[in-house]
Every structure is written in C-alpha cells, then in structure tokens.
Amino acid sequence: MVKFRTENDNGFKRLVGDLMRWDGETRSTTDPIYKPSYCLPFVKNRRFVGRATILETLEKKLFSQKCEAVALVGLGSIGKTQVALQFAYLVKANKQGYSIFWVASLSEASFEKAYAELAQELGVNKSKEDEDVKDLVRRHLHSEKAGKWLLIVDNADDMEVVMGSNEKRGIYRYLPESESGRVVFTTRSREVAVAVAGSHLIDLREMSQEEATVFMEISLARKELLQDKATTVELLRELTYLPLAIAQAVAYLNQNQISLRKYLGLLRGTEQSKVSREFHDRTRYEGSQNAVATTWLVSFAQIQRSDKAAASILGLVSCIEPKAIPRSILPEVGPEEVMEYAIGTLRGYAFLSERGDEEMRRSSEHELAKAYLDDRRIKEAIEIFEHVVAVRKRTLADEDHSRLASEHELASAYLDGEIVKEAIQLLEHVVAVEENVFGEGDPNRLMSLELLTDAYTRLESGSRPD
C-alpha cells in the first residue's frame, strides 16, 4: 500500500500533480460566472498521516472516472471524517475552480442546520415564507450558476435519516445532482453506502502499525517516550490502531508526565475494573470499543480530579450531538476565566476541538464584548470589539459573515459611546458590502441600514455629538 508521511513525500506530490493536471483539463475556457465558496467545519489537520491509497482512489473515482457520488465506508473511530477533510483541502488547494461544501448528517436537525448555513454562504434566500431552504439549496447547486463543486455529507449513518421512511422524507432528496458536482459520503453503514453510491464504495480500515506509529510520533509532545519501542508497539496494539483511541491516549500523555508503560497499565486496569464487558456495536471492530472507551475513562478520571468545571461541561456534551456544539449551550460553570480554563482542559485532553483556534478565540472575545455592552461597560466593550475587528480585517475577507457581524457590533458600540462619526464610517462600509452579499429582504442587511439611518439622524440633530 502506498503511504506518505509528510507533504514532501513523492506519493503526496504525485497526487497533487494529478489533481492540478485534471484541473487544467477540466477548467472552462470562458470566464466563470461564479466565485468558489468554501464551507469547511474544521481547519486542515496538520497531523494527518498515511491513507495515500484511499486519497488517490477518491481522486480517481471522482475526477478521472467521473463518478458523481462515492461513499467512504468504515466502522466507528476509523478516521473517515479526517480522510474526507484531508481530501477536501487537497481539492481546495489544487482544483481551485471547485467550491467545497460540508454538511453533517448525524440527524435531520444537524443536516437542516448545515443547509441553513450553506444557504447563507451561497446567498440563497426565500422569496416566500413557505419555501423550504433545503430545496432552494438543492436547486441552486443543480444550476449552472453554482459552477463546479464538491459536497461532503459526513456521518450518513442512519438509513432512516438518509433515505426516509413512510412517515417522513430523508435528507437524500435534498442532495443535488449535477454533472458539475461531486458528492462524498462518510458512513458506518454499508446499507447506506450502497443506497447512496451504488458500487462506488471505498472501504477504510484501521491504520497499519507504521501509520499508527507515525501518527503518534507527530502528535506526541515528548518524543523520547517512543524510544521504548517495545512498549510503543504494545500500546498501539492495545489501542487497536484506531486514530481516535491514539489521539485520546496522546492527549493524556501530553497533559500528564507519565511513561508509556505507566499509561498502558492505567488502560489495562481501567479495562478490567470498569469495561470488563465488550460493548455490542456492529459499527466498530471487535475489541475497538474497549480501546476507545478505556482511553476516555482514564482521561475523564483525571479531569474529575483536577477540574470539576471541565467535568461538568463534558457531562453535558457527552449527551448531545458531538459536532458543531454552540458555545452558548454549555453550562455556566463560573466566571469567564473559569469557563475558558475548563474548555482549555477539555481541548488539552482532545475531548473538544474548535473550528479554527484563533477564530474561535475571536468569537469568545466577541461574546465577552456583548456582555460588557449589556452591563453598560461601553469603553471595555469597544476596546474588545476593536481588537476583534482588527484581527478579522487581517484574516477574513470583506464579505465574511463573522467579520461583518463584528463590524456591525462595533458600530453599535460606537453609537452607545457617542462616537457617531466613526460609527457612520464603519456602517457605510458594512452596508456597501452587505448589498453585494445579502438579498434585499435579508434581516442582517436591514438591521445595518436601520442602524446607519439612526447614526445619520444623530449626527444631523447634534443631540449626541462625538
């Protein structure tokens, strides 16, 4: 099996070269009528290793054999989402005429949320109240104006959610079909895989020992631990070469100064005392359930001892859908600094990850600034908003929704602080950008126009000069 360790390996370079060549062959000679969009839930995984053959097969099926849909099928914790994410970033880098969209399909609710976000990104708006936004997105992607696109439907595990039943429609009816589009499904269910992709299936199995060792080496902070080669092999075998189990184990080792042998002992002790019975789950390999569960239990026991607030948050998130959890629904565990520390603990143990560390920190600061406004601490709020806006100006495009939202909030804070001219200057920019991004009836655009009108009125009346 062909593998690559880093982006400098020949296999990786060959795959990139093939993608660029096919991109040149398929690129239209006319000016595009669309601008590529990218809706990806996670940043690129810099620790991704191996899976070269899988990535090459995906590329071949979709862009050489021109299959419109391919299903990546494998048992739980095997790394399907990470493979799909790596492929998405390869396409983004090397087939620049393609838009890339990602929708979670754990449930009807997660799919609906993803399509609502996709509609906003694409500028697809309802013209009638009774229109279904999911159908509008499907029709848009089916049309020529959508251009070329890759759609990843992640976690399509439930046959009833995907294909529907006598009582309800499935999400499959809302998926677009287009000669210009390609769809990748990730699923634990072979039944779902066959239903959505026919014979175009790609089986993903556990990592090889070599891939697992490289993954651990890249992820581990204390590389010297791997000098104990016999224990390394023994630990990886205990973790059944599953990426998720390895990631959890490495997170614990990075947080706690213990040896591989000591951690292996903790795993085996936990398995004997708490997970002595094998879980019955046909979506995972036999033995793999304990590998994942025991790594979680060892880490959770440590968190319970060291950070009660983090344990409280973990207790909630373990009971809800694991992806795209809004920060706003997390339990109140204390002041802001306690919450930040608790989230940091969970991230350190790899129980939580965020959609781009830096951007999520900006979001946290954004929320803190709004709390200051509510408390009439206007000066502090303005300072934070100015910082957030400055960072987003450097890192995000003018039309990015997060940047526009922060600029709107900063302008509002300026008005609260009687800094009217600066508010007008910022709002004029926001309104001009939103005119090209949102439809006429979009509530974001209407709110900005209303705020700008209010700012003009204040300036003309001179009632609140800056």
UniProtKB/TrEMBL annotation:
It comes from the Eukaryota. Signal peptide: none annotated. SUPFAM superfamilies: P-loop containing nucleoside triphosphate hydrolases, TPR-like. It holds the Pfam family TPR_10. GO terms for molecular function: ADP binding. Transmembrane segments: none annotated. Residues 54-219 form the NB-ARC domain. This is NB-ARC domain-containing protein. It comes from Pseudogymnoascus verrucosus. The lineage of its organism: Eukaryota, Fungi, Dikarya, Ascomycota, Pezizomycotina.
